[in-house]
Structures are given as C-alpha cells and as structure tokens.
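Many introductory courses stop at the sequence. We go one step further.
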Amino acid sequence: MQDLPAFRRVRISTADFPEAKRLDMWRELYGRGIANCDIEPINDIPFRADVEFSLLPDVTIAAGSRTPATYNVTRELAGRGKDIVALSILRSGAATATQFDRELVGGVGSANVLLSEHPSTSTMLSHGSFVTLALARSSLSALVPNLADAAGRSIRSDNPALRLLIRYLDAVQAGTEFETHAIARTVSTHILDLAALALGARGDVAEQAHVRGVRAGRLDAIRSDIRNRLGYSELSVDEIASRHGISPRYVRKLFEEQGSSFSVFLLAERLEKARLMLGDRRYMHLNIARIAHESGFSDVSYFNRTFRRRFLATPSDIREAARMAWRD
C-alpha cells in the first residue's frame, strides 16, 4: 500500500457550489460530513463560507472565513465525531461560543477551547475569519493532564504561548516544504507543545514543550528573515546567526532538527522565487540572467543547472509556458 503524503491540504468553499444550493450543500458537506453540526445563518446576508484544511499527524488546521451563522453541535451529533480538542482562534470579526452552559466571548486573537464529545454552539456574529485546531485528545492529554479543566473556556489574546502558536500556524500554512512524515510529525509536535502551553501545561512537561516551542518559533523567524533577503547573493549562515543573536552552529542545528539544512532551505527558496518571477507578467521585461541575480544567484550556469534539477524544466521552458498561458 502506498503511504499517504506527509502533509496534505484540502480546500472547500461555497463559491464552488451553485448559488441557490450553497447553504444546503454546505450543511451537508461541512456540517454533517466534517464538523458534525447544524448550521443556521443569523441574518439575510447571502451565505458564504470557505475552509482550507491542513492535515498533519494528530493535528488538523482549519483556516477560513464565513458570514454570520450559528454552528450547533447537538448531543446526538457530538457522539459521532472523533475524540478531539478544538482550539478555535478568532482572526477577524466577532464571535461567541457556548459549552457546559458557559458563554465564551473573546476578541480577535483569543481562542475558545471545546471538547468534541460534548454539545456546543459557536456563532460568528459578523463576517469574520478563524483558525481552528482539531487536536487529538490522547496526544494533548499527555501534555496537559488537567485538560478537562481547560475545556469550555477561553484563552486571552495576550497569552504569550497563544501568540507564538498563531505565528507558527501562519508559517505552517504558508509553507510547502514538508516532504517526509518525520518533518510532518515534528511540526505536529510543535503545534501540540504550543497549544499545551497556552492551555496551562505545568512542570517538566511545560518545560519540555517550552524548549521545543521556542525553537520552532525561532526557526520560523529565521526562515522569514531568509525569505526577505533572498536577493543578497552573499547571504550566509554566519550573517543570519548574527542578526538573530545566536551561533551559526545553533542555526544549523535548528534546521537539522527539521530534517533539512540552511543551505538546502536557502537554495529551495531562491529557486522558488525565480520560478514565480518567470511566470509573472510584471517581470516579463527581465531576462533570465537578471531574474537569477534578483533571486540571489551570482552564477547563471549554476542557476540553470539547479533550476532544471529542481523543476525538471529549464527557466526558458517556464517562461515560454507562461507566455503561452498569457496569450490564451
């Protein structure tokens, strides 16, 4: 049997449905097929919703937006789902949730903690966006023994671990480099660690989660810095380490823990930048050598060789395919 991919994304949207059937189809596909809930709009605004699922071991990230509506998990529906803890983070708009007769009201950046096996109600009061983590309860319980005490409660937006978790999730959703199950498992571990800290993990477990979570956050910051400086051909591990106040050896170790290296990540990002530029009308006036230079390559021959190895096509092939698409 062929193994499943280490990291998969699935997106669903009411925009893909016939307009007259959007609500009914969303109720069936998302409400009953995924979230085990009843859905009821709360005003006359045309119903809209979209969610992108990022599927990892023991963790599912659901990021999306929706118009005002109530999502109600009844007692009957609650028994149909997997045993998960839902950590729902409000990114924009206004929302409330209720579980165990407690109404949870938090602002943007806050999170509600809900248990899937108990009835709950989540209401988006205005058009807004969210990120919801579906976390395997067995994995999270190992980190947060008092997990039941955190259920049906809110986490404030100024919680340091929650803020770090949100930044890490943004990086995960923007990335595509999870090529092995080992890396996907490591990413899941970081998410569970940061969620556990946000939920109030204590003692040795909290210390271990803190160390792993801080490392993940630091690596995220380093990756972001590298992406912003791809055009500097002399970019080195020594320079990045100096900018972040750590040693080059520690930078290398952070990448090695993810099954990669500084040089592999840098090359992959530079090649991807060049590929995107070659297919973008805005850079049509630039020749291939200039695009290579803008992407941080000082040797055009090396650029051409590594580009073909990575994409199984030459830079000229990519540009010509883009030109043909523009004519269509």
